[in-house]
Amino acid sequence: MSFIKKHFFTLVLAGLLLVLLLVPGAKAFLLQTYMRTGLLNAPAKKEIIVPAGNFSGLSFVNDQSVYIHTANLRGKTIFINFWASWCAPCVAEMGSINALYNRLSADPRFVFILADADNDFSKSISFMQRNGYHLPVYQPSSGIPGNLFSGSLPTTIIIDGNGNVVYKHEGIANYNTAAMIGLLRSL
Q: Which of 73, 54, 45, 69 is nearest to 161 (CA)?
């Protein structure tokens, strides 16, 4: 009993660390809380580290076998987020992407593609339904160049109406910000 009293805070801290390591939802909750501080807001600037070039040849398919080709989306701004339902940072940022989608989805100038990196529609659509998100889920149906998506989750890219990548961010971010909306509307 004296051991527990003496090491109470150490035991509690160890228990919290175990929960964060073993329970994906707990890690996502912690990351969402951290995002709300504003420290993880997506940098809304056009400077990116992607070689210049046209990326209008990407293709995606949804669970109804409907294909979407970026080449057919000339004149539209395309927001693509590569994610997975098991990825805690992906889960943490999904609420901000859903809020951004809700704000811009009625505007025909914008197309949102949530690219399930696991290629498992049953898991990704179940995740969206369970969380009350209405985001369009797709899977890549063409090769994605490694300079766009290297496998790091989450990865978000924005392609302008001319097929040029104008934004790339690897890692968690809050996308539902005035700066990001300003960037998207400026394209």
A: 73
Contact indicator for 117, 83 with CB cutoff of 8 Å: yes
Give the C-alpha separation, 169 to 1, whole Å: 50
CATH number of 1-187: 3.40.30.10
* 3-state SS record for 130-168: HHCCCCCEEEECCCCCCCCCCCCCCEEEEECCCCEEEEE
What average pLDDT values come out for the chain (187 residues) when binned by 10 residues? 71 64 63 59 54 73 96 94 93 94 97 94 95 96 87 92 88 90 92
List, in order, residues 6 or more apart from 110 with CB less than 8 Å away: 76, 77, 78, 79, 104, 184
